[in-house]
Amino acid sequence: MTSKEIKTKPLQLLTSQREINRFNLKPEQPLFALTSDGGMVKSQDPRVNSVGELLTKVEDLLLEPEAVFCEEILSRILDKSTSSVARLEPQALLSPLEFEAYVYRFKNGGAYLNPTQDFYAVVDETKLPVAYGSRSSLCPPMANISIFSQKLMNIPDEPVCTGGVQPCLRNEVIYEQEKIRFPWFTQTDIELIAITSLDQQENQEILLDTYSCYQMIKALELAGIPNKSIEIRINNYMQILNNVLGDQVPWLEKEIFGYQSLNNLSALKAARKTETDEYRIEQKQSLNKLSNFCKKFDVPEEAQAFFSNIITKGGYDFSCLSDNPGESPEIITNFNYIDAIQAYLRLITTSTLLRNFFPGRQICKIDPLSYRGGFPGYDKTTMQIDVILPNDQVMIEVGGGGAYPNSLQTAAEVLGDSYLNQPQSYAVGFALGNARVYSAMEKFLPSPQVNSTVSVLSWNEFLEVCNQ
Q1: pLDDT category, 7, cuts 50, 70, 90?
Q2: Non-local CB neighbours of 271 within 8 Å, separated by 6+ positions
Q3: DSSP SS3 for 51
C-alpha cells in the first residue's frame, strides 16, 4: 500500500462544522494566546490566524499517512482490550470547563502558567474564552469523564479502555525544533480507567500499569517493529524522588530539577551514548545543578547522596539512605523513605510481570533518570518506549505515558462527577507519536502495513497469564 493510497483511506474525522456548531463559533474568529501573567494576546502564529484555519489544519493532520496508519493500530488494540471500550473522536477544541479540568492540578500545584501558554484560545465579544485548542492527547480523557463513569458503573470489575487518534496543538512552538518538537501533530492515545478495590488497590494498580506497558509494546509490534528492537523504560519520578526530597522543596522546583538535571542524561543513556564526552559533560553539569539545588533547599546529605548515585551510576541505590548500608531495598524498613522504596518495588513487579509476556529478553528496564511529566500530570508510574533501528541507532521516546490518578480525580471534581472523584479511581495510559511510529516503521518495512500476525491479549487473558 502506497502513502498516496493511505492518505485517501477514510478516517473517522473531526469535522470543522461539528466543532463550530458545538461552540457556536464563526470560522473567521481570531485565535489568541495565553500569556505568562494570565492574560491573552492575539496569537503570533503566522500560519493559523482564525478558528477556520486551525480546524482545517486539524483535518489535514488527520488525513496524513501516519495518522491513518496508527488509526488501524489503535482499532486492533481497542478490539482486544476490555469488555468496555470508549472510542474518542478527534477533539480539537475544549470548553472552558474542560480546559479547567485539564489544568486544575497545574493551577493548584504552583505550575499553573507553565502549560497554559501552549494553548490557543477563542474569545467572545466580551473577550471571555469560549474554547481552547487541545494541547495534548491527555485533554480528551479529562474532558470525557462522564463517558467513563457510565461504562464503569455498567461493568464495575473491569477497566474501561479508551483511545483515539488526537490532534495536538502547541501555540508556543512557532518553528519546528530540529524535527523534535512540532507545533501541530497527531498522537495515538490509549488509556485504562478503573475503580480499584480498597483491599486490592496496590495490586490492581500494578496490573493496570503492566497492561498499559504491554499494550504500548504490542502497538509497536503491530506497526511492524520487531519485538527485539523495542525497549521500554519505566520510572516513578514523583513518588520516589518526591519522597526523598521531602515537602520542604516546592512542587514546581522538583519539576524544574528533574527536567534540567535528569532529562538530558536519560535521553543520552537511552541512545546508548554513556561512553561519550557528551554524556560525561552532561553528567558533570547535572552534578553541579544537584549541588546548587541541595544548597538552595537545604536537602539532607543522605538525600543528596541518593541523587548523586542516580546521576553517576544511573541506578537507584537505597543503601545510602539506611542505617545499615548494604541492605537490599526489600528489607530496608527502618527509616523515613519507606514510601519511596515501595514505589520502587512496584516498578520491579511491573518489570518482572512483563517478562511473562516477552520471554528471553529484558524488554522493560527501570530508568531512574527518566523524567516524564511529573506533577501534576503523571504522579505514579511513568513509561517511555524506544526503538533500536536496523543501523543500531536508537529512536528515543517513540511513545510515552504513565499513571495519573490524581489528575483523573481532580478533573472529575471540576466536572462534577462524584463517581470518579474518589481515592480508588485510577488512570494509566500512553500516547504514541504517530510521525515517530511511522518513521520507525519505514526503517523495517518496504511499505506501510499493519502486522496482522501479531496477537494481542485482552485484559482477562492478560490476568490469566499473570495469575499462573
Answers
A1: very low
A2: 393, 394, 396
A3: helix
* Calpha distance 391→143 (Å, rounded): 42
Cα angle, residue 332 at apex, residues 331 and 336 outer, rounded to 5°: 150
Residue type, 333: T
Contacts of 158 (CB under 8 A, 6+ apart): 82, 83, 84, 194, 459, 460
**DSSP string computed for 301-366:** HHHHHHHHHHHHHSS--GGGGSSSTT--GGG--SSTTHHHHHHHHHHHHHHHHHHTTSTTS--EEE
Phi, psi of 397 (to 5 degrees): 50, 60
pLDDT tens digit sequence for 201-215 = 999 999 999 999 999
Q: Which residues pair with 192 in a beta bridge?
A: 161, 428
ω into residue 376 within 30 of 0, thus cis?
Answer: yes
* Sign of the C-alpha dihedral computed for residues 315, 319, 320 and 322 taken in this order: positive
pLDDT in tens, 312-362: 988 887 777 766 656 666 555 555 678 888 899 999 999 999 999 998 888
Tell which residue, 375, 165, 148, 62, has the closest CA to residue 249.
Answer: 375
Beta bridge partners of 30: 50
pLDDT of residue 327: 63
How many other C-beta atoms lie within 10 A of the C-beta of residue 63? 16
User: Quick one: which of 277, 306, 279, 275 has its CA closest to 290?
Assistant: 306
Q: Provide the whole-model pTM.
A: 0.91
Using DSSP's 3-state secondary structure scheme, residue 467 falls into coil
